[in-house]
Amino acid sequence: MHAWGELLEGLRALRGDLRRVITTVLGVAWGTFAVVGLGAFSTGLEESMATRAAGMGQGIVIVWPGQTTKPWQGVPEGRAIRLTAEEVRRLPASVPGIAEISPENSVYARLRRGGQAFLPELTGVDPAYGALRNLPAQPGGRFLSELDLRERRRVVFLGDRVAQQLFGTADPVGQTLMLADTPFTVIGVMQPKQQDSDYGSHDTARAFIPWSTFAQIFGSRAVENFVLRAEDPAQLPGVIDGLYSSLARSHRFDPSDRFSLSLWDTTEADQVRRQAFSAMDLLTLLAGTFTMLVGAIGVGNLMFLVVRRRTAEFGLRMALGARPAWILRGVLLEALLLVGFGGVLGFFAAAGVAMLVGATPLVEDLGQPRISTELALGVSLLLLVVGLAAGWFPARRAARLQPAAALAEV
Predict the structure, then answer these.
(1) Residues paired with 140 in a beta bridge
(2) Annotated domain spans of the chain
(3) Which of the residues 115, 120, 259, 346 has the least number of beta carbons within 10 Å of its own beta carbon?
(4) By C-alpha distance, which of 72, 24, 90, 19 is closest to 334?
């Protein structure tokens, strides 16, 4: 109660310098706004970019057979590496750490349904491809199965744009369309998704059929490329080395010849993105912290001014029995209240701006600004530290006053 009494007296004293109080509070509010606002936009942009990147699949590696650039065991350089689908499917047995793998071949082929036609990228794959490349089916449908592959079924999984072009608002699942004068049954349609990368067409404009069916229709034997995912992303470098070693044994090329295979390791881009946003978050935190420290200096100066004005009052209170700890806590609470009010003001201002931007078309490019729990807790802790730092020295000075000396200054 004594500390609260001191706090009330301190607030009354602040009314005499309202302009300085407002300026000080706004300084803290601006620092809080900077940290929370930039943090919210950074979180939204990072989540948006991660979602778009995941549209092509998470933790995957796309591999294209290449051409040797080194002679090896009497075989000259310049040989093209040609793989079959069966070789690709056997790789997990010889390369530890591969969780899923699928061959992939593509052509552009016309799909027809009545008077509607579309020329998508038609891709032959194994069932594992759906999980590898993040191809979730809309309710009521499914992706390719092992039975589809074994029986060379005439079934097709459509990208959502292809389905809309051919079927409009009707449900495509179970319907028939024509591919090269051959009827195919639609077994599923991809759920709409965000995707910022590809190595052909975006999945929304593609159609997928079993590899065995694709090979039968188009006479494909060699694999254009294959997609794999490691059981543990940390094991990926070892998996890649094992991939070169395994294929080098069966195709007689130098395992150190990195041009024999072309790889796109999507996890590298993920790491670069995370590091870039971590650096940006750190810079944002530092900039906001320095701004808040400027506000804290303002709070400290204001509290020193208040303590000087109330020197005689403090001396009289201590002469009448007030304990130094009561004075200390009262001044500290006053500083914390000023910093806290500025922090709340800045926090809600940042939240309001984030909400307004989130309701505009800018969200498509910037992502949905979001104040994360970690950000809110971090800013709260920072405000607490700033408030304690701003109030400690003035409070300690007030608590160390000698009653007689303080009263002598009246």
Answers:
(1) none
(2) 2-54+271-408, 82-252
(3) 115
(4) 24
- Report d(CA 91, CA 273) in Å as an integer: 30
C-beta of residue 126 within 8 angstroms of C-beta of residue 211: yes
Which tokens is 222 given? 């060699």
- Bridge-based pairing state of the strands 60-65 and 261-265: antiparallel
Q: Has residue 407 got a pLDDT over 70?
A: no
Q: Name the H helices within 189-265.
A: 211-218, 236-251
Strands 182-189 and 155-158, by their bridges, are: parallel
Residues 6+ apart with CB under 8 A from 244: 255, 256, 258, 260, 261
How deeply is 28 buried, as exposed, middle or buried, from its count of CB atoms within 10 A (0-12, 13-18, 19+)?
buried
Burial class (CB in 10 A: 0-12, 13-18, 19+), 105: buried
Rounded mean pLDDT, 370-377: 84
Beta strand pairing status for 116-118 and 225-230?
A: unpaired
Asked if residue 177 lies in contact with residue 112, where contact means CB atoms within 8 angstroms, the answer is yes
Interatomic CA distance for residues 291 and 32, integer angstroms: 8
Fill in the amino acid letter for 278.
S
Q: What is the pLDDT of residues 102-157, one digit of tens each?
A: 999 999 999 999 888 999 999 999 999 999 999 999 999 999 999 999 999 999 99
Among the listed residues 9, 371, 24, 66, the one whose alpha carbon sits nearest the alpha carbon of residue 248: 66
**Angle of helix 266-309 versus helix 2-14 axis, rounded to 10:** 80
Per the DSSP assignment, residues forming a β-bridge with 178 are 112, 183
